[in-house]
Amino acid sequence: MTFQQVYGYEPTVRYSAPGRVNLIGEHTDYNDGYVLPFAIDRRTVASIGQRDDRVLRVASAFDPSSVVELTLDELDPSRMHGWSAYVLGIAWALREQAGADLSDKRGFDVFIESDVPVGAGLSSSAAIECGVALAFNDLWELGLDRKTLARVGQYSENHAVGAPTGIMDQSASLLGEQDAVVFLDCRTLDTAVVDLALEANGLEVLVIDTRVEHAHATGGYKARRESCERGARILGVEALRDVSVEDLPRAEERLDDETFRRVRHIVTEDQRVLDTVRTLREDGPRAIGSLLVASHESMRDDFEISVPELDLAVATAVEHGAVGARMTGGGFGGAAIALVDREARGAIADAVTSAFAAAGYREPTVFTVHAAQGARRD
Ligand code: ADP
Ligand code: MG
């Protein structure tokens, strides 16, 4: 399916935006902490035709039989359903969240295609939102900057789609640069692009998708958030971001064992993000391996969001020479990443696949990602 086949004419422009991988900094976002994602070389492309009326039509290669239609006067989350909310919600959020005046604007025909795996924790959702947000911002000449568009994407996902997510995914998808990570302070929303320099160091990032569905993700995610809030309340801070590694011995005296371990993960993970940024700047990517492994151990033992498949992927990758590895994303399934020498990639991928077979687990999907440029007009 193509734009031409759906709408019967050629599109005027194409915009694309990438999915993302989080290098380190897990569950720190809602604790006002730090994250370090990068945009990947898997993108969603939005082909767009400009219309003379106020109609917005959206279609996806994903679901080519249904074309969803709404006018710019009807924009409201109650009228947005299923995947099309990821597109239509952006127009609504540009008005609602960023204050754009759409009263004199014309509509578009939009066609979405993507090679970002859906639901693998690589944020196919942000890839749609950010490509569309950049396109609408340009074509409607709204003049909003990329940080504002990231907030628009998050607002749309929270209120039009109805998923309570942070701003990491959109920040990575809009601000990512080739062979670099995006350092994001989730309290101030300050960002900095930090060189990853994998290319120059002969390294690559392998994604090992365990294909374990995030079965307990919703319940587990909610419970972890509650533990973090409880910890912050008892410690008398606004968010766990305000607790440092030096404060942990005192925190241990005041918290029950489980809450303390949840808090310790967040506090040490924030520190690991800061250490990773400093290490990348001073010593390069080969030196961050132990930070990745420590992050995984903290999620496995303290935050308890790993699963045996993720632990096996990480242990096998490290045993077979990975510089470092960790589960990435919200946990309870999903993917792990491994930082590997380019030449070792095949052997490590094979070792992980064999280990999964030997353990009787479902075959994982293993592929390489590169840190890529953020959303752009193609
Ligand atoms: P993730 O962002 O981790 O891939 P999400 O559940 O946040 O998972 O987003 C996946 C949803 O985004 C899909 O269920 C679908 O509604 C929408 N989506 C992603 N890619 C496409 C696409 N190419 N076409 C239409 N909808 C898509
Ligand atoms: Mg998503």
Automatic annotation (TrEMBL):
Pfam families xref list: GalKase_gal_bdg, GHMP_kinases_C, GHMP_kinases_N
Uppermost EC category: transferase
Pathway(s) it belongs to: Carbohydrate metabolism; galactose metabolism
Positions annotated to bind Mg(2+): 125, 157
Occurrences of domain Galactokinase N-terminal (ranges): 2-48
Enzyme Commission number(s) of this protein: 2.7.1.6
Transmembrane annotation, as ranges: none
One Gene Ontology cellular component annotation held by this UniProt entry: cytosol
Residues flagged as site, Transition state stabilizer: 20
Ranges of residues in domain GHMP kinase C-terminal: 285-357
Alphabetical UniProt keywords: ATP-binding, Carbohydrate metabolism, Cytoplasm, Galactose metabolism, Kinase, Magnesium, Metal-binding, Nucleotide-binding, Transferase
Primary localization class, coarse: cytoplasm
Gene3D superfamilies in the record: 3.30.230.10, GHMP kinase, C-terminal domain
The GHMP kinase N-terminal domain, residue ranges: 86-176
Molecular function (Gene Ontology), one example: galactokinase activity
Cell compartment(s), UniProt: Cytoplasm
Reaction(s) catalysed by this chain's protein: alpha-D-galactose + ATP = alpha-D-galactose 1-phosphate + ADP + H(+)
Residues reported in the UniProt entry to bind substrate: 26-29, 221
Positions of the catalytic residues: 169
Domain of life of the organism encoding this protein: Bacteria
GO terms of biological process kind: galactose metabolic process
Recorded family membership: Belongs to the GHMP kinase family. GalK subfamily.
Record-given protein name: Galactokinase
Protein species of origin: Curtobacterium luteum
Organism phylogeny: Bacteria, Bacillati, Actinomycetota, Actinomycetes, Micrococcales
Annotated gene: galK
